[in-house]
Write a structure and sequence with these properties.
4 strands; 130 residues; single chain; mainly alpha; two-stranded antiparallel ribbon
């Protein structure tokens, strides 16, 4: 596990500072879906039969997983930040904090910054290097 930049057990955690300092875009898909489901459960909405669009309208957009993982890093980050705000508003921010405490940086995606072998591509998927 990586070195922690913020002690998450302190009150008044600035989760956004932790995210920015660690260049976090969002959780990896499997963890992200689990965090999303846990937020719904712990906020007391476990038996609510809403589709992803209705959840989004309530301020809790679905994680960008499966085919939606190809979304831009900015889109992923915006969704994750909206989920953090929803968790704060419903007093379940501890869900995200607990995942960070347990897994640190192991569950977080920090961006699609790579170089394709034998090409001049760098950055987000398909974004040409200039």
């Amino acid at each position: 596990m990586g070195e922690r930049l913020i002690n998450l057990s302190f009150p008044n955690l600035n989760i956004y500072k932790y995210i920015e300092e660690n260049k976090i875009v969002c959780p990896y898909p499997q963890a992200w879906q689990a965090i999303y489901n846990q937020i719904i459960k712990e906020a007391g909405f476990e038996n609510t039969k809403l589709n992803w669009k209705e959840w989004s309208d309530l301020g809790l957009p679905a994680p960008l997983v499966l085919g939606r993982w190809l979304s831009s890093d900015n889109e992923k980050k915006a969704v994750f930040h909206a989920q953090i705000e929803f968790a704060k508003e419903h007093d379940v921010i501890h869900v995200i904090e607990n995942w960070i405490d347990e897994y640190d940086m192991d569950i977080f995606f920090t961006g699609n910054h790579f170089v394709e072998p034998d090409t001049n591509l760098v950055g987000d998927v398909g974004e040409p290097y200039n």
